[in-house]
DNA sequence: TGTTAGCACTCCTCCTTATTGAGTGCTAAA
DNA sequence: TTTAGCACTCAATAAGGAGGAGTGCTAACA
C-alpha cells in the first residue's frame, strides 16, 4: 500500500509515534532531538517531518504545533515498525488454575476475562460470548420442576451448559416426560447446531406427534426453546475497565468523553462491531472503524476458538494513541486463555 | 427534626425546589414571582428566602445568585411537601407477559428490570440479585456430564434455578452417583439455607462416608459447591442507563463527571451501598450517602421480596436535583414487578 | 406590623485584548 | 546534503472591562 520509506524517515516516524504515545502531546523537532540522540539535527528532523506529513503519515494540529501521527501513520507503525511483544507472565498458570476452580459458569469466565484483560492493558476490554455455530449437542435433558415447569438442559460439545426453565400450558405425566426426554435426546444428541433446520424440526415434530399424543402446542414450544438456547443471535457482550477511558488525556474534554461513553453504553452496536471482523486478529485504527463515534479510538480484536466448536471475540478499545505492541499481545494471550479455560472446564 | 414552617414559606420552598429540578439553575425571586402567580411580591419572596436559608433549607452559591435547595431542603420536600405518585402504566401488564415468555433466567430478568427502570426514570438504575437467606432447597440434582464432571442443579423454593459444573478428581460409577444423588436429595430437600450449618454438614459428611465409600475429598468438594451456590456472599448487581448521567447539567464538568463514573465502575462498593439499607424504601439525599464520591447524588432504593424467600434491591442513582415523586414510585413499581415476574416464572 | 417599590451593590459570565512561547518553514552558509 | 539562524504563526493563558441577574437594605405604604 505504501512505498518503502528511507531508514531515517522510519527512525523519525517511529520516534514520533512512541513519543506521542507516551505524552499524548504533539511532538516537536527540538524535543525529539533532545530525547533521542539521533546523529542529525532538529532542522533535518523538520525536513523529514515535512516529508512524512506530505506522505500522510503525520499531521499538524495547527501550523505552529508539533506533529502527531495520523491514522495512516499508526497503521504503518502497526504493520511494519513496531516490535516487542509481551512475554507471558509466569504467574498466569497459577491464576488460571485458581480461576477454573472457583468459577465455572460461562458468565463468570467471560466477565473475569474482561476484567483480566482490561487490568493488563489499562484500557477498556470487551469480550463476546461464544456462538454455537460449529458445536454439537452432546447431551440434552428435561428435568421436571413442578407440574407445569420443566428445566431444559443442553450441554454442547464445547462443554458449555445451557439451561432454561420452560413453562407449559398443560401438565405432563412422568411417563410422558420420560418418553419425551428419550426421543428428544436420541434425535438431537450428536447433532450440529446447524443441522437443526426447519425441515429437521418438522420431521421431529411429526415423530413426536406420532409416538406420543401431546398437543402440538407443547411440542412447538419445546422446539422453540431448544433452538432459542442455541441459535440465539444475540451473543452477550461483557465490558470492563470503562473508567480507564476517563484517564486518557484525549478524552479530557466533555464532548469527546460523552461521545465515546455513549457508544460503550450501546451494547448492540458494540456486538456488531466486534462480530463483523474477518481475521483472527484485527486492529482497527481511528477512521478505519465503521462506527462514526469511535473514529478517534482504536480497536484491537482477536478471535478465540473453543475445542468442540464455537468462536467468540476478545478486544480492547482505547485511544488511537494506544500501546499497540502491548495491547496486541495481551489480547492474543487472553483469547488463548479463554479457549483454554473453557476447554479445561469442559473436558 | 424540624419545626413546622408557615404555609407561605412552604409554598416558596416547594416552588423553588420544583423550579430548580426543572432548570438546574439557582432560582431568583423575580423568576419565581413571574412563573408562579403568588399573591405576594418578589420582595416578600426574598424575605422568605432569607429565612429559609437561615433554617438551612436553602443555599446561595454566591451573594448575587438565586437560591438552590440544600440537602436538608430536599429532605423536607421528600418527607413533607411532595405529592403526585405515578399511576401504573396500563401497558405494563402486556409487557410483563411478553417478558416472562421470552426471558426466564435470573440474569435476563435482572438486567431487563434495570433497563426498564432506567428507561422509565431517565436516570441510572441499579438492581441486585436476590439473596437466598430465607428460601429452602426444593430440589437438588446431580447430573453426570462426563467421567469427571457433574452438573449440580439446585432449585430453591422461590423458583430460582442454580447450576454449576463440578470437576472431580476421580471418577464416579453410575451407581455411586445414584446413591449420592439420593442421599443428598433426601437430606437437603426442604432445608432452609440457614439450616445448612457447619455442624449439619459435618453430620451429612459422616453419613455419606458411612454409607458410601468415597474419599472424603469428593464429599468435601461437593459440599463446598452446594454451599457456594447458595451462600454466595456477593450478589451480583446490574446497572443500566449509565449514560443518562452524561445528560445531567450538574455533571457537565469533567471533575464531577469522572468522580461519579468512577464510583459506578466499582461494583463492589455499589453492592454494599444498596445492601446496607434498612427500610423497605429509602431515599438518601446528597450528603446522607455514606460514599464520599456520591455526595452530590441521591439514591432511591426499594427492597423486593420473593415468594418462597429471598430479597434483593432495586434503586436509582441520580443528581440530588431529582424528580423524587416520579422516581420513588417507579422504583416501588419495579420492586413489585420483580417479585411478580420471578414468582410467576417460579410457580 | 407586614408588605412592597426602589436602588445601590455584588459577583459571576462572557467578551475582548495583550502576552507568551513552542514550533515551524525558509534562507543562506558550511 | 545538512545545519544554523531568524522571522513568523498561532494556541494557550492572563488580564481587564462591560453586562446583567439577583440580592439586601431602606423607606414608604396599607
Overview of the structural elements:
2 copies of one chain form a homodimer. Chain A folds into 3 domains: 7-81, Arc Repressor Mutant, subunit A (Orthogonal Bundle); 92-131 and 235-345, 2-Layer Sandwich (Beta-Lactamase), CATH 3.30.450.40; 137-230, 2-Layer Sandwich (Enolase-like, domain 1). Chain A is built from 12 helices and 10 strands. The first copy, chain A, has helices at 7-23, 29-35, 42-54, 71-81, 92-102, 106-121, 174-188, 198-211, 216-230, 254-265, 267-275, 324-345; strands at residues 58-59, 68-69, 124-128, 137-146, 149-156, 161-167, 237-240, 281-285, 297-305, 311-319. In chain A, the strands form 3 sheets. Chain A has a 5-stranded antiparallel sheet with strand order 7-3-10-9-8, with helices on both faces. In chain A, strand 1 (58-59) and strand 2 (68-69) form a beta hairpin. In chain A, helix 1 packs across helix 3 (42-54) and helix 2 packs across helix 3. The first copy, chain A, starts with 6 loop residues before the first helix and ends with a helix. Chain A binds chain B through residues 100-101, 104-105, 107, 139, 141, 143, 145-146, 148-149, 151, 153, 155, 161, 163-167, 242-243, 246, 252-254, 257-258, 261-262, 265, 345, 347, and chain B through 100, 104-105, 107, 139, 141, 143, 145-146, 148-149, 151, 153, 155, 161, 163-167, 241-243, 246, 252-254, 257-258, 261-262, 265, 345, 347. The structure holds a DNA duplex (30 and 30 nucleotides).
Amino acid at each position: 500500500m505504501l512505498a518503502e520509506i528511507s531508514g531515517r524517515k522510519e527512525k523519525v516516524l517511529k520516534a514520533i509515534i512512541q513519543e506521542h504515545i507516551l505524552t499524548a502531546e504533539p511532538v516537536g523537532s527540538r524535543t525529539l532531538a533532545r530525547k533521542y540522540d539521533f546523529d542529525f539535527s532538529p532542522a533535518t528532523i523538520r525536513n523529514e517531518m515535512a516529508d512524512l506529513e506530505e506522505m500522510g503519515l503525520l499531521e499538524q494540529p495547527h501550523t505552529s504545533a508539533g506533529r502527531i501521527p495520523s491514522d495512516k501513520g499508526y497503521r504503518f507503525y502497526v504493520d511494519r515498525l513496531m516490535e516487542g511483544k509481551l512475554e507471558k507472565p509466569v504467574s498466569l498458570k497459577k491464576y488460571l488454575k485458581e480461576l477454573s476452580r472457583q468459577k465455572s459458569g460461562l458468565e463468570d469466565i467471560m466477565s473475569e476475562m474482561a476484567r483480566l484483560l482490561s487490568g493488563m492493558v489499562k484500557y477498556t476490554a470487551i469480550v463476546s460470548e461464544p456462538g454455537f455455530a460449529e458445536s454439537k449437542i452432546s447431551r440434552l435433558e428435561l428435568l421436571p420442576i413442578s407440574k407445569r415447569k420443566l428445566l431444559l438442559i443442553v450441554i454442547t460439545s464445547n462443554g458449555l451448559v445451557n439451561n432454561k426453565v420452560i413453562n407449559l400450558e398443560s401438565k405432563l405425566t412422568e411417563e410422558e416426560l420420560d418418553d419425551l426426554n428419550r426421543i428428544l435426546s436420541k434425535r438431537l444428541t450428536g447433532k450440529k447446531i446447524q443441522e437443526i433446520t426447519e425441515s429437521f424440526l418438522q420431521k421431529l415434530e411429526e415423530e413426536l406427534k406420532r409416538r406420543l399424543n401431546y398437543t402440538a402446542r407443547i411440542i412447538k414450544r419445546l422446539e422453540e426453546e431448544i433452538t432459542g438456547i442455541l441459535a440465539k443471535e444475540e451473543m452477550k457482550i461483557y465490558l470492563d475497565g470503562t473508567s480507564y477511558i476517563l484517564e486518557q488525556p484525549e478524552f479530557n474534554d466533555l464532548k469527546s468523553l460523552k461521545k465515546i461513553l455513549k457508544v460503550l453504553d450501546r451494547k448492540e452496536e458494540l456486538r456488531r462491531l466486534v462480530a463483523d471482523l474477518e481475521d483472527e486478529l484485527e486492529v482497527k485504527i481511528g477512521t478505519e472503524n465503521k462506527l462514526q463515534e469511535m473514529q478517534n479510538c482504536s480497536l484491537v480484536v482477536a478471535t478465540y476458538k473453543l475445542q468442540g466448536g464455537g468462536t467468540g471475540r476478545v478486544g480492547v478499545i482505547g485511544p488511537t494513541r494506544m500501546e499497540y505492541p502491548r495491547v496486541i499481545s495481551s489480547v492474543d494471550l487472553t483469547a488463548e486463555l479463554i479457549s483454554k479455560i473453557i476447554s479445561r472446564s469442559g473436558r
